[in-house]
Each structure stands twice: as structure tokens, then as C-alpha cells.
Amino acid sequence: MSCARSRPTKLVEHLGTSLEGIHVLDLSRVLAAPYATMALGELGAEVIKIERPGTGDETRQWGPPFWGDQAAYFLSTNRNKRSCEADLSTPEGQDLVRTLATQWADIVIENFKPGTLQRYHLALADLRQANPRLITATLRGYPEGDDRPGYDFVMQAATGLMSLTGPVDQEPSKVGIAVADITAGLFLLSGVLAALVTRYETGFGQHVGVSLFDAQLAWWVNVGMAHLVTGDAPRRWGNAHAQLAPYETFEALDGHLALAVGNDRQFLALCQLLGHPAWAVNPLYATNPARVRHRENLHALLQAEIGQNTVVHWVEAMSRCDVPSGPVRTVPEALAWREQFSPPMHGWVEGIPQMFLPWRFSASTVKPHTPPPRLGEHTQEVLALYEKLRKDS
Predict the structure, then answer these.
(1) What's this model's pTM, rounded to 2 decimal places?
(2) Which domains are assigned to the chain?
(3) Of residues 181, 254, 264, 322, which has the active-site annotation?
(4) Bridge partners of 67?
């Protein structure tokens, strides 16, 4: 069979969901991997989530807050899935998972502690041997060889993120959301999608592995490169930027303004707006490296001007002269501002509030949302599928 791609013969204007017909067996829990499986479901895949009987995903109990009797934490990462209770320590539960993985699934995603699936006679390599088209994916806390469980807060500390976050003169701080988990989930998602493309070419699946620790290091970008080229340990800058100035927050009359000057042209426009064009040609501030060296003096000059008017005034004025800036909003304020644009980024799914994912396709569609499932809500439905698969085999 040839795997060569055929050249499109006409412009495609309307398609179904991108992953329509793809089946995902979700053996994961908590945040990082469930975020990836929710995204696969959003793109059109059919997702079955296997949960521990009686308790299910740990995040079902992670509250307050709750929406009724359901934890908001669980509701945030489990839309577009079916929930099936199964005890993987029993032969019956193992056979259910094995049958779904080898006869139904295109993708299996798990984040058990290393060795757990082998103990349950569900080693991923064995599942792929039985189903060569199967893509398996694992999310771990640490690189292979370190079997400790991974938690976002610990990862933010252990990978150096907290050493970069927070006010300069105070203790290291974590980011306000579980950013290590989310970035790892996104890396896992992109790896699985790449494996799907490869399967399209070859007909064979493969294994994708991501650790929270490695994912955290992978997005250091300029911070990591600065260390590699200098050997120095990056330091905290508060809201300032290590390589750009002015690139920080300023206090206006009624709140805080985020100002992000990325080049000399923008700095000139800012100086003209503030009525001080001479600053842009002053050797202390004329170039970005000079501004970085003299950031404290520059900050004081800018603060004296910005403090004389409101956040809205400065955002509107800076927008007119192409100087990047924005208000420091609360989460409710940001959501309220976003409501003026379509399509929405949050809304209701069968009476449950949800945050949506940001894809906008010109031809494909995003799958109609289904609410996060109750524990075991689809167990009988999945068991019926299991019996059919067994009969057909």
C-alpha cells in the first residue's frame, strides 16, 4: 500500500472535526494528561476515561469551589469524555482495558507511577504489539529512571521556575496556575498529534513520553539560553525583563499598567507621547542594551509621567502610537473584556460553566461540547462496547 500523499485538487471550504473517527483511551488523572485528552476530545476524538471505582479521578474531590457537588478543578479538564469505572487490579478490569486498547483505541494515554501498568499486565509495549497502529503516551513527573511522582508545585521549585518568579527582594514564588502541568500536557498533545501524522505515513503507531520536569526545562527559551551562553544563574526581575527595557509594570493614577517596549522605534514613539523626545537620543537610553543597563533611572523617569494619568488614558494613547501596553486586570475583568469578541472563550455546556480552548479553524470545526461526566456515567455504555468488541473478535 502506498503511503504517498495525494495533491489536493480543490480548495476545501468545510470539513468535519479534525480528529473525527479517532478513539482515545484515557487512563490518566489529575491535570496535565487529562488536559491533553480533553483537547483531543475538543478536536473531535472520542474519549473514554477509565476511573477508579467509587472515587475516580482525584480532582473530583479537589475543592472548594464546587459546582453543585462537582469540583471545579475536575470540571476544568474533563469535558468531551465518557467515564467508565473499572478496577485495573482485577482480571475483569484488565481485560476491559486490554480489549479497548487493542481493538478500539487509536491512542492510549496514561500517567500511572512507573511499573503500575506492568503489574496489571497492561504494559504499553504489549498493547502496541497486539495493535501495531496504536499510539501510546505516558506523562511522568521526572525523566526516565526517577520514579518519584510529580506535582506541579514541586516542579516549579525543582526546575528553577520559582527562582525566577516573584519580587526581587522577597522569597521565590510559584506561578498562580499549574503552569508546569499545563505546559507538559500541551507537549504531550503535540507529540501525540505528531505520532498520528507519522502513522498516516507509515501505518504504525509509536510511544510518546513526556515528563513534567523536562517539559518545564523545554520552555525556558531566552532564560535557558542566557544561562548557556554566560554560565550565570538567571535571577528574579519581578515584573521587569532581563533583556528588555522598559518592559515592566508602572503605577498609573487608578491602577497598574503593563508596558512592553520591544524595539527602539517603539521607545521613540513612547518618548514623543510623553513629551520627552530627547530621551530617545540620550546615549543612556537610545538603544535597548543601554536602556537595560540604566533601567532603574529610566523607570523613575517613566513612572513620573505615567503616574499622572489613568490606565485607560495610557492604553488608548499608546495604542494610537503603536506602543504595546495593557491594563493589569483581574480574571473576571479579563473575561468580561473578552465577551465583546466572537466566538466566546467561556460559556455553558448543559448547565455547567466551562472555559473553552482557543483554536480557530478556517475549514475544520470544533466538536460540540459535552459536559464533564459524572463518575461512571457511561460505564454500562462502555461495557456494551466491550462485549461487542469481544464478540466481533
Answers:
(1) 0.91
(2) 23-219+359-392 (3.40.50.10540), 247-331 (3.30.1540.10)
(3) 181
(4) 70
